[in-house]
Design goal:
The chain is α+β, with helices and mostly antiparallel strands. The protein is built from twelve helices and 17 strands. Helices cover 27% and strands 26% of the residues.
């Protein structure tokens, strides 16, 4: 079947009187054509917003149902995720005749208002009420190391629970939590707590502490977000209906530069992933999710939605940062200023050599200049650095390289410890602070 023919007969998918054989042909085309799949999803997005109006025969009754829905208080809904297999398809065609009729009804009713702007606001408010959430809490199981960033994954690790809570409204608040790391957004600021007794980093509500996982802070917009991603990135996106669900599959290529694959599969954006979502067909709320990556010759599930509960009462204390234990508190500006004493106007290789040379000579005053974490209370104790690299002998330092989305540079190293052991790795360095000084960011 050609796309033009599919577009002409598209509305028959929703006609109970249509020939079953024709429906099967339409579905087969939908499963094999990416462009038609995107358009179909666009249709469902519109139809889902107008869902309370779709089942009525009278145009006036349909609009009354839409407007009345704004006053309905959503009840508590528990959504049980299910494990389902991947599928295929991607959509982008004109809206169907059924949607046209519904939208036409809206236009007719709006024309009866003296002030079209007011009418439009009423309609917008009612549609928002249909899709509104008061609160949501989610639990994900993720292959990740405790204390790492929330988007970080490790295919060789066991599963760790990542919990998310959010309240919606004019002043939304949320909380991310995993062993060794917590982020609290109290409505005005984000606070990232690193390990028990560690430092606290304070940022604005838009600080990127959650990385890719920020997608789940708007669970009623995930479908649109992933579609937008698929349009702007090398990805294939497929959709199909499964019972009362929409099943969305996104095959996304790893983002970043991978002439050197060092950070490949270290985070979800930096991995070749198959992300399979299930959404409630009417509300578009997430009901299930599984993220699979290719690691060597194996496919590994690295993230799965374990549970999601909407509109339950969440205690205010979840979203309040209290500095128990008087942890060191730094703003992003404080962190930036702490890099001022670093080294600049040298290459990454020269910076790596200066760092390891300081360790070789037990010159810890120089080594401290390479990271605020070496000097702030609650950071990385210098005794750890001294134990690992104190009195080393530099064997070789390689050429620097970039990998993935990392904003810095990696320098390969091979050193011999004071006890005679050989240590190797890639030292992570970055100089994207306002002073353009080099900071050691990991790899040691």
């Amino acid at each position: 079947m050609k796309c033009e023919e599919f577009q002409e007969r598209f509305a028959n998918l929703f006609d109970d009187q249509a020939d079953p054989g024709e429906k099967q042909q339409l579905l087969e085309h939908l499963g094999s054509c990416g462009e038609c799949s995107i358009a179909y999803l666009d249709y469902l997005s519109i139809a889902g917003s107008l869902a309370p109006a779709m089942g009525r025969t009278s145009r006036q009754a349909r609009m009354e149902a839409i407007l009345a829905s704004a006053a309905v208080e959503p009840g508590m809904r528990h959504i049980s995720p299910a494990s389902r297999g991947p599928w295929s398809g991607r959509l982008r065609i004109a809206a169907s005749f059924a949607v046209f009729i519904t939208v036409a009804a809206v236009v007719v009713l709006l024309a009866t208002f003296r002030n079209p702007a007011i009418a439009g606001n009423i309609l917008a408010q009612s549609i928002r009420a249909i899709r509104s959430l008061k609160t949501v809490s989610m639990v994900f199981t993720v292959r990740t190391a405790p204390g790492e960033n929330f988007e970080s994954i490790d295919p060789a690790s066991g599963y760790t629970d990542v919990r998310v809570w959010k309240t919606f409204g004019p002043n939304p608040k949320w909380r991310f939590e995993k062993p060794g790391r917590t982020i609290i957004m109290d409505g005005e600021s984000q606070f990232m707590l690193n390990k028990p007794g560690g430092y606290v980093l304070k940022g604005t509500p838009k600080a990127g502490f959650t990385g890719w996982m920020k997608l789940f802070l708007e669970p009623d917009r995930i479908l649109e977000s992933e579609l937008s991603y698929a349009k702007d990135h090398p990805a294939s996106c497929k959709i199909r209906e499964v019972g009362n669900d929409l099943e969305l599959s996104v095959m996304a290529s790893a983002s970043g530069k991978f002439s050197n694959p060092w950070v490949l599969n270290s985070s979800i954006p930096e991995a070749n992933t198959l992300r399979v979502y299930h959404f409630d067909k009417q509300t578009h709320l997430l009901t299930a999710l599984a993220v699979t990556i290719k690691s060597g010759a194996e496919e590994v599930c690295v993230l799965r939605l374990a549970s999601i509960v909407a509109d339950q009462l969440l205690p205010d204390s979840l979203f309040v940062f209290t500095n128990k234990g008087m942890r060191p508190l730094l703003t992003l500006d404080d962190w930036d200023k702490a890099t001022a004493s670093g080294f600049k106007n040298i290459s990454a290789e020269e910076a790596a050599k200066k760092f390891f040379r300081a360790c070789e000579q037990n010159d810890w005053n120089t080594a401290e200049r390479f990271s605020p974490l070496f000097t702030i209370p609650g950071g990385i104790p210098m005794k750890i650095l001294r134990k690992r690299f104190g009195g080393i002998r530099i064997l070789s330092l390689g050429n620097s390289f970039c990998s993935g989305m990392y904003a810095g540079i990696f320098v390969p190293y091979l050193v011999q410890s004071a006890s005679g052991d050989t240590l190797s790795g890639n030292l992570a360095l970055r100089n994207d602070n306002s002073f353009h000084t080099w900071s050691v960011d990991g790899g040691y």
